[in-house]
Amino acid sequence: MAHTQGRSRYLTTRDGRRLHAAQLDGPAGAPVVVFEAGAGGTRSSWGTAQPPVSVFAPAVAYDRSGLGRSEPDAADRTFGRMADDLNDLLDGLADGDDTRFVLVGHSLGGVIVRLAASHRPDRIVGLVLVDPSDEAAEDMFRGNVERRVALTTAIARVLARTGALRLLGGLLFRGVPADVRADLAREATTQRAIDAMAQELKTFYPELQSWQGAAPDLGDLPVTVISGAKSAGLGKAVRARVNEAHVGRAAASATGRHVVAANSGHNVPLTDPEVIVEEIRRLVSGPAAEKG
């Protein structure tokens, strides 16, 4: 039986690392939709949103270095490094120079797709940023962020070592297809996955804060920002300020849109996948998707 997320394939970065992707083929000529997960997230994070997208466009979810089935990276996982990996992946997916892409990023993934798109805007139809990390959300930088990362990582390591993370993941993702849930249990709840997450978060806060004065230039690319409606541990006031930052991010694009996912906190791909699918459909079918 075919896997829900499609066929596996491996694409190579400029320095020879192999990145694993799961591809569902869609209608020929449509822009290719590429999904970028949040910190420590594998391709399986998109197991509910990716299949319905393949009805109207090719849909690809992949594992960043050190996650899922992708090879690890000995270098620091800076924003630039991860964005270069994404552009290398797009190079491998491209079928000629006229291949166009819609990039979809959740949380940290929103940061990565913004930077990658700014480097090669000519081949990007648009971006869908799903409850993204944003430099305008000042609450992110309050307190001792290094201690916060260290504490989060330490807790995750304990949960992974005891098997509790696998149990919690099974409960959280009980609504996803069985094959995707099995992949999550094997790949996303391990010490290896936590190590990769820690590597990704090592420079996350100082890098993102530095964007306050020098954000990636997206030109006139269409950008849709989807915010969660629920506080989900943030508190109502913080959630409101985060969503204000999202409104500003959408407004920075001449054709930007801000959408609120009514059933969601941060994990919109799990709780409101249809909202994501509809915004991707809008970009795929819009005038910017037409080939020149």
Give the strand line-up of the largest sheet. 1-2-4-3-5-6-7-8
Run of helices and strands:
EEEHEHEHEHHHHHEHEHH
The appropriate CATH architecture is 3-Layer(aba) Sandwich
Major sheet: size, sense and barrel closure?
A: 8 strands, mixed
Feature tags:
11 helices, 292 residues, eight-stranded mixed sheet, single chain, alpha/beta
Q: Could you please describe the fold and organization of this structure?
A:
The chain is built from eleven helices and eight strands. It is α/β, with parallel strands linked by helices and 292 residues long. The protein has a single domain, classed as Alpha/Beta hydrolase fold, catalytic domain (Rossmann fold, 3-Layer(aba) Sandwich). The chain has an eight-stranded mixed sheet with strand order 1-2-4-3-5-6-7-8, sandwiched between helices. The protein is globular and about 45 Å long.
Layout of helices and strands:
Blueprint: E1 7-12, E2 18-24, E3 32-36, H1 50-53, E4 59-62, H2 79-93, E5 101-106, H3 108-119, E6 124-130, H4 145-162, H5 164-172, H6 178-187, H7 191-201, H8 204-210, E7 223-228, H9 236-251, E8 257-261, H10 268-271, H11 273-285
Parallel strand pairs: 3-4, 3-5, 5-6, 6-7, 7-8
Antiparallel strand pairs: 1-2, 2-4
